[in-house]
Amino acid sequence: MNIITNKKNALLFLFMTAGHFLFAQIDKKATEETRNLYQNLKTISKEHILFGHQHALEYGHGWSGKTNKSDVKSVTGSHPAVIGIDFSDFSGQSNDRIENTKEILKQNVIDTYDRGGITTVAWHFNNPASEGGFYWKDGISTASISLIKPGGSHHEEYKEILKTIADFAKSVKAKDGKLAPMIFRPYHEFDGDWFWWGKKYTSREDFIAVWQFTVSYLRDTLDVHNFIYAFSPDNRFNSEEEYLERYPGDDFVDLFGMDDYGDFGRDGKYDLVAAKKKLKIISDVAIQKKKLAAFTETGLESIPNATWWTDTLLKTLQSEKLELAYVLVWRNDTVSPTHYYAPFPGQISVPDFLQFYKDPYTLFEKDLKNVYRRNFKLR
Hints:
- Helices cover 31% and strands 13% of the residues.
- By secondary structure, the chain is α/β, with parallel strands linked by helices.
- The chain has a single domain (32-378), classed as TIM Barrel (Alpha-Beta Barrel), CATH 3.20.20.80.
- The strands form three sheets. It has an eight-stranded parallel beta barrel. The protein has a two-stranded antiparallel sheet with strand order 2-3. It has a two-stranded antiparallel ribbon with strand order 12-13.
- The protein is globular and about 55 Å long.
- The record marks 188 as: Plays an important role in maintaining the position of the catalytic nucleophile.
């Protein structure tokens, strides 16, 4: 069915069965705005894809702490449709730093909601049982998933950390008095070995136990009802069976994702055939299970390929009949001259990115209207 013919003006309205999609959202008490966002993301994914950028509003290439600024907006006139933030400083830091971070991110989330954009949350979780931060460091880090599961030595501490997250989720009350929904993506890239929760350091059973407890405790005990829960390994799978090897079950996941830099030009290596296959797997799983799918992280550091946006990313996304709600590229560092994944004024890929921006398939924040309501449409 052809839903959209005009990116800017056409009505995007494809609710079925008396105004509802039969999608398997896991929180039956989710707020109305969260339910609407969930269904609208599925609708969007049938004909379009939202563009996202990590830490887009907090800082960018050569700047930080500016109001209503992003590198993407400086290039296109619009913020990304999806803004990435991180709960990394919600634990393992001083109380002052935790509270300061919460206030900054609270305003970020509320402002994004008020403008009509969407927030997704990564969690670079500092190891609660050892030094070393969120990365695995030989001789320092502890394999801690087994320690924070129910019955583990650090389980009570883990519950306190989750309470901090729950308090934040309940604090993001916007101008309309509603809580801003967020896509929460814990334990990402769990099939790699660079994080302490990686596959090398934890059993399948312990990983699933911690995931299930995390969702249940936030949703059912702490009454967090404005989260959409995303499951996103890295790209180390070649089949649906491999992708779902650590899947915690249909009652604990709303969105199927994948992080993939390696197939998209990292170290000069491209394998777009493999990339298409993997994206098709997550899209198909989501369709089968009546859930969402998204390309949760990708990008090419420094964007040395001037036509990467249209010749690599866009062509790959459009090469199959994929249903992906959004694609998110990683952050633009404030001080590094090379660590950036979205263009800024003067960067060599700007002309191509503008073509990517103008393509009817891609949506940015300016394209959205009422994404948290049932009468959602494109501007």
